[in-house]
Write a structure and sequence with these properties.
- This protein is mainly beta.
- The strands form 9 sheets. A 6-stranded mixed sheet has the order 1-14-16-15-11-10.
- A hairpin with a 5-residue loop joins β39 and β40.
- It is globular, with a radius of gyration of 25 Å.
């Protein structure tokens, strides 16, 4: 929606919110009985009655849209895998390796590189892609690429689609397209379990109902090579509740061995996050104006609707739907363990002062069977990690409370311990069962009665949780000043760690405050530093020495231009004793022990 001048936009938005909330119930959990449509007409009537969108027609100007129209492990060396949440459930990323070849997606091109041994590196082939290429999978001799497109849907309109291209890469120098699929909806995420890939796309209501008054229905479609089929009504599911509906979440499974496909669609609210175990997909959808009753009457509730979709040898089945208070942060806010789903949420607003966090334990029927609430009032969750019968939360507003949660009794979860330290973590990663690595920002309290803190440089912390009720921060390093950042804070795939190799490496954009500025101001907590470096920071990490800086690698020739993103290192991986860093401009090869450069491959 385009921005409007003056007071018009706030008035319209407020009116729309009031009209939406007026349709919602004030109490009761609601009826989550699973249903599917018997006809497209029934689907149309349901969506018109439940849509939260205002009544208007959506057009896309072709000239201004800026969118494209849709249309083997031979090496014996060990190598790094994609950093995933659940073992056995692969996640897509922009780079993959099998220990001999590197597959790298950069600027809508997939490069297949012979990478090991390092003295014989070369680019074997390049695959140029349409649309916006998002990420890739590699399994055996199959390369899977996911792209976002806009397909022409009328004289003036375009509809978003997800393009899936699968290549046979038995001959790395000459990849051959094996299959092409295009499903309706914006690409959201994907997972790969054994030979099956599961692709999730989110389709807004106004693409399904392009005209809200007497509108026609465009049910989700899937094109396989040159054959296009609509999702049948019997495979489109909904829960008959009077809450706002944002569109459809479309799920497609593909067997990489025989090409078999299954497809299902779910009429949902806004799909905010996704968690996938080996047996289930859990869709977390935001819901505002919740019927759940809150103790604070000044805050109109929000909750999360959770759909459990079971995965059985490539087949997709909706099993249950439930609801928890609050909102999830990301995929790490959810975890399946021993027949239960655990969910960490934040309810309320930190700025309004009515926020708190909680953990809810749900049965596989998606009924809440245990909970612990009112964790860290006035703060919100910045990071969560579940590890078996334990969970770890980081909340923040002024200091970083690091919480340990006991989940050994799923019916009575409880806060076991708490550690308050400066700073916060955006991402938590297990070092081992008794130690956790946290990556986030250092902070400085803003001063008396200001009730917030200034974030500073990048912070890496090592927590000892062997005494579960008394966690301690056993070591930490702070990189740079205010402004220093790393994409590993927001994308765990950029986090490279090996306990066996004592390796921790992350891309860093370094900002420093110069001495003149420090002398000019007594308090520089709120001042940003100047860009001075971008590259990979490499550490040795172990329990004896803690976190020890080894060195850094960069692809930039000079640091005067902080906008030279083509040379910004995005990922790092290792094969044997060789470290590879990847940017859009090049792949640099370094010895992992001493970081001496061993070569590079230009991609420009």
């Amino acid at each position: 929606m385009k921005k409007l001048k003056g007071y018009v936009a706030p008035i319209i938005i407020f009116a729309l919110l009031l009209s939406t909330f007026a349709l919602l119930p004030s109490a009761g959990r609601g009826d989550y009985t699973l249903k599917h449509f018997r006809s497209y007409e029934e689907m149309k009537e349901f969506m018109e009655a439940h849509s939260r969108m205002p009544i208007f027609r959506v057009y896309y100007d072709v000239e201004n849209a800026g969118m494209a129209e849709g249309a083997s492990m031979k090496s014996s060396a060990d190598f790094s895998r994609t950093n995933v949440q659940v073992e056995g459930v692969d996640e897509p990323d922009i780079v993959k390796t099998d220990g001999e070849f590197i597959y790298f997606l950069s600027d809508n091109v997939v490069y297949i590189i012979h990478a090991y041994p390092p003295e014989n590196t070369s680019v074997l082939s390049k695959i140029k892609l349409d649309g916006d290429a998002e990420n890739i999978f590699v399994r055996d001799n199959k390369l899977i690429v996911f792209c976002s497109l806009y397909r022409k849907a009328g004289n003036y309109s375009y509809t978003p689609t997800t393009l899936i291209k699968i290549y046979d890469i038995g001959n790395k120098s000459h990849p051959i397209q094996w299959k092409e699929m295009e499903m309706d909806g914006n690409y959201f995420d994907a997972r790969m379990i054994d030979e099956h890939i599961y692709v999730i796309a989110v389709e807004d209501a106004y693409y399904i109902l392009p005209v809200y008054i007497n509108g026609t229905l465009n049910p989700p479609q899937l094109r396989v090579d040159n054959n296009t089929e609509k999702f049948p009504p019997s495979s489109i599911y909904y829960v008959d509740m009077p809450y706002g509906m944002d569109g459809a979440t479309n799920v497609v499974s593909i067997n990489l061995e025989n090409g078999a496909i299954d497809k299902k669609s779910f009429i949902t609210g806004n799909t905010a996050s996704l968690y996938v175990s080996k047996n289930n997909i859990f869709l977390a959808c935001e819901k505002y104006g919740s019927p759940i009753i809150y103790e604070n009457p000044q805050y109109y509730g929000e909750s999360t609707i959770i759909y459990r979709i079971s995965l059985e040898n490539g087949s997709i089945y909706h099993r249950a739907t439930g609801e928890v208070p609050g909102r999830v942060l990301n995929q790490f806010s959810m975890d399946e363990y021993s027949g239960f789903l655990r969910v960490a949420t934040t309810t309320g607003s930190t700025w309004a002062g009515n926020s708190y966090s909680g953990i809810y334990v749900l049965s596989m029927d998606m009924n809440i069977v245990g909970k612990v609430e009112k964790i860290a009032p006035g703060e919100r969750i910045y990071a969560a990690r579940f590890m078996g019968e334990k969970a770890y939360l980081v909340t923040f507003r002024e200091t970083d409370p690091f919480f340990t949660i006991n989940l050994s009794n799923p019916y009575v979860p409880e806060v076991a311990g708490e550690l308050k330290i400066p700073g916060y973590s955006d991402y938590l990663h297990p070092y081992d069962e008794n130690h956790i690595i946290g990556i986030g920002k250092e902070t400085v309290e803003a001063g008396e009665n200001k009730n917030f803190a200034w974030y500073q440089g990048l912070k890496i912390a090592l927590f000892n949780v062997s005494e579960f009720k008394n966690p301690i921060e056993m070591d930490k390093v702070v990189i740079g000043d205010r402004g220093t950042d790393s994409n590993s804070l927001h994308d765990h795939h950029a986090f490279l760690f090996s306990k066996e190799k004592e390796l921790l490496a992350i891309p860093v954009s370094l900002y420093l405050i110069d001495n003149e500025t420090k002398e000019m101001y007594n308090d520089t907590a709120s001042i940003y530093g100047d860009f001075v470096f971008q590259g990979l920071y490499v550490y040795r990490i172990n329990l004896k020495d803690g976190i020890v800086f080894k060195g850094r690698i960069t692809h930039l020739e000079n640091f005067t231009n902080c906008w030279d993103y083509s040379h910004f290192i995005k990922r790092a991986l290792y094969i044997g004793d060789t470290l590879y860093t990847l940017s859009d401009a090049m792949i640099k090869i370094n010895d992992m022990k001493n970081l001496k450069e061993r070569g590079e491959i230009s991609l420009l």
